[in-house]
Automatic annotation (TrEMBL):
This is TNase-like domain-containing protein. GO terms for biological process: tRNA aminoacylation for protein translation. SMART domains: SNc. The keyword Metal-binding does not apply. Keywords: Endonuclease, Hydrolase, Nuclease.
Length: 333
């Protein structure tokens, strides 16, 4: 149980290693997978007893604690160092041999590793994450059909991602397993009904690059700091197509700040080293949404596009999308 190790989906690599691998990144996914399985089955992975001194009953207690700690961590741990720190902090009152054996089982850094000095379970590098970011998403490749306009996108994150794995509902896990069996036996009506249950819970089973099934969590995301013309406005379709061109088929990194009143996450999107909002503003595909985001670089990029009269700024007096929406609301009354 839990012996398969899958690399994170956003790395677009799918290999398998035995527990105890020296590949620490694989160990992160392995632990996330095993926590997920433990929540579903209450069973600890085979082979762990060879590296620790405590009983399987005690081991089950560790997984219970780790599952709760991981679910409560904001943001969730992602790197081997962060996960190792979480394990050490959670199991700090347990035997040293058990903790070190547990880390070794997953190929995670040991306690005397100089990279694991902080008692905090999660460490954010302030030089790489903007102020105000609550957590980070690493998505699966984006489908063009999931982009309705220039500033909104629907993304999916693999349920095996370290942040997601511990919080996947049991009912979703069971439905995904039963769906796979139904498809294998060619009982497609049952498989479709099970997939409907999965979708209603906010998940979906996607097909990976190697034709494997990937259970994934759905998120709707509003790009922070910009407002693009609506689809029916002048330049609305051009803005949408620019976003499609930027992210279609790509895995994204999303820094999430908050959630809006429509249930969408609001955040910055990065794709292949590009800051998507920067590209949209510089190409004249968006307005700086100053009412909600005061970052000076955003207005700077908008002004540069205005000066060059590119994109929507080729028009002498483009209508502001927030005014267009207000007029539309007023007209419907």
């Amino acid at each position: 149980m839990g012996n398969a190790i899958r690399y994170l989906a956003h790395e677009a690599i799918h290999h398998h290693h035995a527990h105890g691998s020296t590949t620490s990144t694989a160990g992160v996914s392995a632990l996330a997978h095993d926590l997920n399985q433990f929540e579903l089955t209450s069973e600890v992975p085979e082979g762990l007893s060879q590296l620790v001194v405590s009983s399987k009953k005690a081991q089950a207690n560790w997984y219970t604690k780790l599952l709760q700690t991981w679910q409560e961590a904001i943001p969730a741990p992602e790197t081997p160092e962060q996960v190792s720190a979480l394990v050490i902090q959670t199991l700090k009152h347990h035997k040293k041999d058990d903790v070190e054996g547990f880390l070794k089982f997953y190929g995670l850094p040991l306690q005397d590793n100089p990279q694991v000095e902080s008692p905090d379970p999660v460490v954010i590098n302030p030089t790489s994450v903007p102020e105000g970011v609550k957590f980070e998403l690493h998505t699966l490749p984006v489908d063009a059909k999931a982009i309705p306009d220039g500033d909104t996108i629907t993304v999916y994150v693999s349920a095996s991602d370290p942040r997601e794995a511990p919080s996947v509902p049991k009912a979703v896990q069971v439905a995904a397993s039963q769906r796979a069996k139904a498809r294998a036996s060619k009982d497609y009506p049952k498989a479709d009904a099970l997939h409907k249950t999965i979708i209603e819970a906010g998940y979906r089973v996607l097909t990976g690059s190697n034709d494997e099934d990937i259970l994934a969590k759905k998120y709707r995301v509003r790009l922070s700091g910009i407002d693009c013309p609506e689809s029916k406005m002048p330049y609305g379709q051009e803005a949408k197509q620019e976003l499609v061109k930027l992210v279609q088929g790509k895995c994204l990194i999303i820094h999430v700040y908050t959630e809006d009143r429509y249930g969408r996450l609001v955040g910055d999107i990065h794709c292949n080293g590009k800051f998507v909002q920067e590209v949209m503003l510089k190409k004249g595909c968006a307005w700086h949404y100053a009412a909600y985001d005061k970052r000076p670089e955003l207005i700077k990029w908008e002004n540069a596009a205005r000066a060059k009269q590119v994109g929507l700024w080729a028009s002498p007096n483009p209508q502001k999308p927030w005014e267009w929406r207000k007029n539309k609301r007023d007209g419907n009354r």
